[in-house]
Amino acid sequence: MTHRQRQTRRHHKRRPPIVRRAGLGLAVVGALAAVGLLSVVGYVAAVAATGPNLDELRAIDKGQSSVIFAADGSRLGYVQSDEVRTPVRWSQMPEDMRDALVAIEDENFWTHKGVDYGAIVRAGVKNIRSGKTVQGGSTITQQLARALYIKDAERSFERKIREAKLASELEKRRSKRWILREYLNSVPFGTINGRTAIGIEAAAQMYFSERAGDLKLHQAALLAGLPQAPSQYSPFRNPSAALERRNEVLGQMVRNKRISPARGRKAARKGLDLNRGDRYTKRREPYFFDYVQDELIERYGAGVFRRGGLKVRTTVDPRLQEAGRQAITSNLGYPDDPSSAVVSIDPDTGHVKAMASSGTYDERTFNLAAQGHRQPGSAFKTMVLATAIRKQVDPRSTTYQSKPLSLNTEKYGPWKVQTYDKTYGGRMDLVQATIKSDNTVYAQLDLDLGPDEVRRTAKMMGITTKLDALPSEGLGGLRLGVSPLEMANAYATLASGGVRNQPKAILKVEFPDGNTENLGKPKRKRVFSDGVASEVTKILEQNVQRGTATKAQISCPSAGKTGTTDDFNDAWYAGYTPALASSVWVGYPNALREMRGVHGIDVAGGTFPAQIWGSYMDVAKGNDCASFPSPRNPVTFSPFYGKRAQQGGSRGSGGSRTYLRIPGGGNNSYNGGGYSDDGYRSSPRFYESPSDGGSDTGISGGGSDGGGGDIDIDVPEVPDIE
């Protein structure tokens, strides 16, 4: 043994026992710590191993708010939902917004690999010192991984481990710019009035009424401070805490050298500058908007609709909507005036171009134009006239006696009919009866044709409400009423030459995955020949020129029919040009209230409804002033042997008529004025020699098809049009 070894041995022997025991203890603690560390590492590795890889997961679809557009591409509004979100591109995110978020949420974002271990340690120390959780250690990448891939919201160590694993994988697959963009489009920024703003665009709109790209520094700093605790820092509920948090963000940006101290101080001196936005709640044309929403739910189901992300292009024309409202308010603008609704349909496509009504959505959410069902009065006589011509009844040679009726029909029981003002025009043809809107003539015609045939024609033209096939329906006495939308579509069938369209409010739907469905393709069916439509149109043109509808005259060819119900509860005008069919209803929506003394007059179809239609169509027609086309398949008329009808020569062809010259009027001429709706307040221009109308017991022709359901329409000579 050398001298050095002997010295060392003697030195060890001189160590006190306590030192030796302490060293041993430290060694044991170190060993235990190593074992513990290895155990933790093993546990973390085991938990991470049980978690799925990024390849095995599908990102949670955050969706976005569905938006509905008008035909011209302008936005009508967003579909209401609990969350509002509109993703934006990187270029639409201002640099200050990106820098502010990184500064306060994850200052090492641009350098770490998904997990910032230093930040985790710092957050742990800070939380231990404060005795509560005051700071999190999750990076932006971890938060995004949690938002996109982890559905379990429960806080646990296991979830944090899986979150870190996914964040590391995400960093390997995606660029930092992609991660930050997705985060800014996916993080919640707080809830206002029950709607949570998801993403920076929605937040900018809800807090400042600004687009994200237009945010100023102090606004961006305020929003950047919200994701950590949106309720605690809400500027609407806790403005002082929000202001303190915003300035904390600005200070952090200065420390990270993202802004200069001078710029930070200037921004910190500003107020909150809140301007609560209504972009996601305000809707133009709310009644039409609701109609479209109902159509979407009916087609795609509530699930698809509520998930959002739809871009819906509709048929409505904002210019016509405004023209409709203007026409209503210019005629019925006082608070106690009756309400009104206007609907327009393109006869070539069935596209709903306008669905306007009086009042505001705040006052009434009920859609008068589409949901309101009221009796149409004499506007429904057009269906009787179309039935007659469809049955080859000559409207010029077929005559009836205008007289009070007290009928005891075999099938329908007693029925009393009189004219609007209880004056009668003697024997007249169907053209005169239409121009005068004679109830008694049309009642007899309806019975001769058969109410079931009138119902059939109404269904053919586009009336979808259940009809009962009763004689009174031909005069507008419908048990369930009819909507302005149905009436516009029915008259559009005449404007299109006998082709019925299915009304269309939606042109196209674009889904979140980029797929689109074209819903605007016309769905058309020819229901009678263009010759039938042309004959009806010729008569209704005369009604505008010299009948009950003179106040609907515009500077272009048009045709139409007025309608008024008993006691002036409802008044209508439905008419069309070759390019557009429109119906107007006037009445009180909540009750059968008589419209007497409105602006000094009793409201009939030939008054305000016709005036509103004329004012509106003067704008709606634009530069289109075409005449109605001649038919390619003219009607060939046959003798009609209705029980109450008589056949005679048509005007100008001889026959058995005796015309009376009215002083100042000329021989069968018309120099202005016109007949009131359903009556004779202006003297008729000519009469026919009276004759006995015979007995009225029973009816002839037709048979019942049993109720008012849908009827199969068989027109074999003319094919469907798709």
Task: Give me a quick take on this structure.
The protein is of the alpha+beta class and 722 residues long.
Overview of this protein structure:
With 722 residues, the chain is an alpha+beta fold. Among the domains are: 84-268, Penicillin binding protein transpeptidase fold, CATH 1.10.3810; 325-359 and 373-647, Beta-lactamase (3-Layer(aba) Sandwich). The chain is 37% helix and 13% strand. It has helices at 3-14, 17-50, 95-105, 117-130, 140-149, 157-173, 176-186, 200-208, 217-224, 239-255, 261-268, 286-307, 318-331, 381-390, 430-436, 439-449, 451-461, 484-495, 530-546, 608-620, and strands spanning 67-69, 75-78, 83-85, 188-192, 195-198, 311-314, 339-345, 352-357, 398-402, 405-409, 413-417, 426-429, 499-501, 506-510, 516-518, 524-526, 559-564, 570-576, 581-587, 646-647. The radius of gyration is 39 Å and the shape is elongated. Mean pLDDT is 81; it is low at 35-50 and 649-722.
SSE blueprint:
Layout: H1 3-14, H2 17-50, E1 67-69, E2 75-78, E3 83-85, H3 95-105, H4 117-130, H5 140-149, H6 157-173, H7 176-186, E4 188-192, E5 195-198, H8 200-208, H9 217-224, H10 239-255, H11 261-268, H12 286-307, E6 311-314, H13 318-331, E7 339-345, E8 352-357, H14 381-390, E9 398-402, E10 405-409, E11 413-417, E12 426-429, H15 430-436, H16 439-449, H17 451-461, H18 484-495, E13 499-501, E14 506-510, E15 516-518, E16 524-526, H19 530-546, E17 559-564, E18 570-576, E19 581-587, H20 608-620, E20 646-647
Parallel strand pairs: 1-6, 3-5
Antiparallel strand pairs: 1-2, 4-5, 6-14, 7-8, 7-19, 9-12, 9-20, 10-11, 13-16, 14-15, 17-18, 18-19
Helix pairs in contact: 3-9, 3-10, 5-6, 5-7, 9-10, 10-11, 13-20, 14-16, 14-17, 14-19, 15-19, 16-17
